[in-house]
Every structure is written in C-alpha cells, then in structure tokens.
Amino acid sequence: MDIYKRIIRIAFPIALQQVIFTSVNFVDTLMIGLLGEVAIASVGLSNQFFFLYNLILFGLVSGGGIFFAQYWGKKDEDGLSRSVALTILSSLLFSIPFFLLSYFAPEMVLRFFSPDIEVIKAGIPYLKVIAFSYPLFAITMVFSFMLRSIGKAHLPLIITIIELSTNIVLNYLLIFGKLGFPVLGIKGAAIGTLIARAIGCIATVFIVYVGKLPGRAYFKHVAELNSKFVKNFFHYALPTLANEFAWSLGFTMYSVVYAHMGTDVIAAQRVMSTIEGFAVSVTFSIANAASVIIGNILGVSKFEEAFETSKKALKLAELISVIAAIIGIVTTFLVVDVFDVSEEVKNMVKVTIVISMGFLPVKIFNGMNVVGFLRAGGDTRFSFLVEASTLWLIGVPLAAVGGLILDLSFPTVYFLTMMEEIIKSIILFFRYRSKKWLRNVLEEA
Q1: For this UniProt entry, which segments traverse the membrane (predicted)?
Q2: Is residue 253 assigned to a domain?
Q3: Which domain holds residue 303?
C-alpha cells in the first residue's frame, strides 16, 4: 500500500499540472475558435511545430531525468547538480535551431504542415512571437524534472498554476481587446503565451535558488563536467532524444496527412486532441511518477524491489486509464457543441474520440514501459528502436495510404494509426518481462 501512496503522491501533482495545462489549451482553443475554423487551424499548425520541439526536448530532458532520479536515490547532490547543468546547456543549444526556423522562416515551417495559403498567412505572426518562448520553456522543463526527481512535484504544479492563469487572462485581454487593450486576435494569443512562459521560467529559477533546493546548478558544476561523465550522460540521453524525435516527427506526419485531407479535418483534429489531452495527461502522470520512483530504487541497485514496484504502478495506471477513457468520451459529447465549427467537424470529433479512448489502456501500457520503466533503467536504445520502427513502418504508412490515397474519413484513418500501438504493446510486453531494463546507470559514470 505504501508504494501506491508514494506513486499517487508524485503522480497527483503531475496529473493536476497536466490537466491545468490541457485546460488552458482547451480555453485557448475555445477563445481562438470564436475567430473561426481558419484561426483554429492556423494556431493548431503553429503549435504542431512547438509540439515537435516540446517532445524532442522532453526526450533530451527525460534522458537527464534518468540521472536526476538515480543520483537522488543515491543522495549524491553534486552528481545531481552536474546532471542538471549539462541538461540545461544541452537544452538551450537544442532550442537555437527551432527559434531560428520559427522566427526567420515561419512560412516555410507552416507550409510543411499545410498547403492552405490562408491558414499559413494567419499563423505566421503567432509562430514568430512564440519563437522567443523556446529557451524559457527549456529551462522550466529541466528544473521541473529535477524537482519531481527529488520528491518536490508540487512545486512545478504551483508554477504551472501561476503561468497558465496568467496565460488565460492575457489571451482574453489581447485576443479580444478587453479593458482597453488592442484587439490583436491570433497574435494576441501568442504574446499572452510568451509572457506567461517567461513568468513561469522566472518563478521556477527563483524557487530553486532562493529556496536553496538540491539540484541547483552553478558554473562550478559546468567546470566539473569531464569527458567520462558527458559520454555516459549522452549514451543514455541521446537515444531518448532520438526516440522522441522519431515519435514526434511521426506524429507531425500524421498532422501533415490530416492537413492535406482538408481544413475541416485540421479543425476536428485540433479539437479532438485538446479534449484527448485530459485523459492522456492524467494517466501518463503515473508513468512519470513510476520513472522517478523506480529510478530512485535503481540508483541503489535494488532490482527486485524496482520490478515489484513497476507491477503495482502498471496495475494502477491501467485502472485509471479505463476511468479516464469513460470520462473523456462523456466530456466530448457534452462540450463539442460549444465550438464554432460545422456539424461535420463535430461528428468527426465524436467518432474519433471514442476510438482514441477505446485504445487508451493500450497506449498507457506502452507509455508506462517506454517512459516509466525502460527509461528509468536506461534501456533507452531498445525503446527508441521499438517506437521508431512501429511508428514509421506501420503507423505513418497506414495513415498516408488511408488519408491520401484511399481518401478514407478522418476517424477511419485515425483507427488505422492505432495498429502501431497494438504491435508495439506486444513487443514491449516481452521486453518488460525479460527484466533486461533493470540497471544502475551510475555504476558506469
């Protein structure tokens, strides 16, 4: 029972943080939706590029998180700070190309996602402003992972509440020109998001350094980085980065397929993914919590305890996924009529969310293994091979054939993409049972 309490104690703030984050995305979508389908599509496509950046950055930072959790399990604060320092430096360098593309070549970026000139034109101002938030977001993410690893998951939650509350208020004022502010529309949403992320970054750094929490990184920790430490770090972190890159690029290709199926499909996918985010975020918080707890245990080489913990975490995640799926379907049918979109789009959303929620337990099983278990033990290369191969050899080809060649409906194409989740779950089941992922990565540092 103690392990369930520990999982929930870490998972609950993460889940609540993600629900709040998704809620703000929902409110943003709702506000922008009042401007019409082109506005929803343009912001949705712009956010696809941020989605790509976010997921690859997540891969890099979660690679660092392997070391955060295991160093904290070992109570080695100096090693924790060195890991944080290296992860921050790597994340900032990684942000540079995304900033350059978003600010100096926004039309090229958006054209990759959609051929609709009207949508591209509307999205350019949004993407150029959002570009400045990338490095701020990177710093916030690194410290959020560090805080979770040391059992302070409630602090990123507080920061998220501050950041996203600010985002809602600023978006309302700047999109619609309330309280004397100018009517900026889509660009107003971007400015509100940028200011909110800046506030979140400043608040995070303030809490960590003024509070003198473990994991504070200084220049001395950068100077202490040696070739052996850096090599071992990237031995595990690069496969997680490659994993998320392959995965996010694959999902970006899904968006490209949907965009070429029509603006109504883009709008339906945007609305559906926003609602879907609630269910997914709650259940995936268990995977993040499991990664922290199991990483702490593996840091002191208690392998059997780690495996027993993983079995309990998996049972809890599957139970919650079923509950979340039911709530997701009910919520969709209740709120979809609020959006200013056509009946055809609303019907596509309803059918597709039922498919998505039906496969949620399978998605969560895969997420628990890739993000929660295998990654915690540094089994990152296997995770990369499984995720990349199933997505690019099964999911993306099926989506392309179904959506672009056979001209199938959006729900049908989405159903086809779920076949890669099924195949992936079978492979991951055998890897999980093999226990090959149970290892202490610090023994090689």
Answers
A1: 20-45, 51-72, 84-105, 125-145, 157-177, 189-212, 233-257, 277-298, 319-339, 351-372, 384-406, 412-430
A2: yes
A3: 2-440
Q: How many domains does the chain have?
A: 1
Q: Are 305 and 297 in contact (CB under 8 A)?
A: yes
Residue 445 lies in a domain: no
Query: How many angstroms separate the CA atoms of 389 and 247, rounded?
Result: 10
Q: What's the pLDDT at 87?
A: 96
Q: Which DSSP letter does residue 341 get? A: S
User: At 22, is the pLDDT very low, low, confident or very high (cuts 50, 70, 90)?
Assistant: low
Full 3-state SS string of the chain: CHHHHHHHHHHHHHHHHHHHHHHHHHHHHHHHHCCCHHHHHHHHHHHHHHHHHHHHHHHHHHHHHHHHHHHHHHCCHHHHHHHHHHHHHHHHHHHHHHHHHHHHCHHHHHHHHCCCHHHHHHHHHHHHHHHHHHHHHHHHHHHHHHHHHCCCCHHHHHHHHHHHHHHHHHHHHHHHCHHHCCCCCHHHHHHHHHHHHHHHHHHHHHHHHHCCCCCCCCHHHHHCCCHHHHHHHHHHHHHHHHHHHHHHHHHHHHHHHHHHCCHHHHHHHHHHHHHHHHHHHHHHHHHHHHHHHHHHHHCCCCHHHHHHHHHHHHHHHHHHHHHHHHHHHHHHHHHHHHCCCCHHHHHHHHHHHHHHHHCHHHHHHHHHHHHHHHCCCCCHHHHHHHHHHHHHHHHHHHHHHHHHHCCCCHHHHHHHHCHHHHHHHHHHHHHHHHCCCCCCHHHHC
Query: What is the model's pTM?
Result: 0.80
Pair 106, 178: CB distance under 8 Å: no
User: pLDDT for 25-84, tens place per residue?
Assistant: 667 667 777 777 777 777 877 777 887 888 889 889 988 999 999 999 999 999 999 999
> Is 17 part of a structural domain of the chain?
yes
Residue 353 has pLDDT above 60, yes or no: yes
∠ Cα 175 181 182 (to 5°): 65
DSSP tag of 178: G
Let me know: does 119 contact 110? Beta carbons within 8 Å.
Answer: yes
Q: Across the chain, what does the average pLDDT equal?
A: 88
What SS3 state is found at 96?
helix
d(CA 280, CA 208): 29
